[in-house]
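Running this now, will post back.
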Amino acid sequence: MRRATDEKTVVKRARRPEVRLPPLVPYGGELEPDGDYDGLEFREADFAGQDGAGARFMDCALTGCALDETRLRHARVMDSVLTGMRGVGTDLAEVTLRDVELVDARLGGVQLHGAVLERVLIRGGKIDYLNLRKGRLRDVVFEGCVLVEPDFGGARLERVEFVDCVLKGVDFSAATLTDVDLRGAAEVDIARGVDRLAGAVISPAQLLDLAAVLAAEMGVRVVSEG
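Update: finished.
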C-alpha cells in the first residue's frame, strides 16, 4: 500500500537539453524570412526590427544579440545556445524551441503564445511579461531566473521545473499542469489560476505562503478572533 502511494507522489523530472555544438561559422548578415541558418555563430548582432519569421536555426550559438521588436514568428530553433539575449517586444509567437539553452536573457514583453518548448533550459537573467499563453511546454527547466508576471494562461505544462527562480504575479488561468515541480522556486506569487495547481508539487512552506490565495479561491474568509 505504501509503495502504491509513493509511486503516485513521485514527480517525473524534466529531461534537460544536451547541446553539443559543432565548429561554428561566424555570421554577419541580417535575418531573412524563412531563412535557413545551420552551424552559425551570431555574436553581438543587432537584429532590432528585423524580420526572421519562419526561419530555422540548427546547431547555432547566438551571443549578446539585440532582439528589440524582432519578428521571429513560426521560427524553429533546435540544438542551439542563446546567451545574453536582450530586447523588448520580441515576437516569438508559435515558435518551436527544441534542445535549446537560453542563458542570462534580459527580455521584456516577449510574445511566445502558442509556442512549443521541448527540452529547454532557461537559466539566469530576467524576463518581464513573458507571454506563453496556449503554449506547450514539455521537459522545460527555469533555473535561477526572475520571471515578472509570466502568463501561462491556457498552456500545457508537462515535466516543468522551477529551480532557484522567482515567479512574480504568475498567471496559470486555464492551464493544465502535469509533473510541474515548484518546490525549488525561491519565490512563488500566483496572481491568477491557483485553482489550476492540480498536477503541480509545492513545498510545505509554499503551501503556507499560498494559504491566503487558496482560501480566497475557495471562498473561505479568514478572520481573527475578537
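Residues 1-7 have pLDDT under 50 and may be disordered. More later if anyone needs it.
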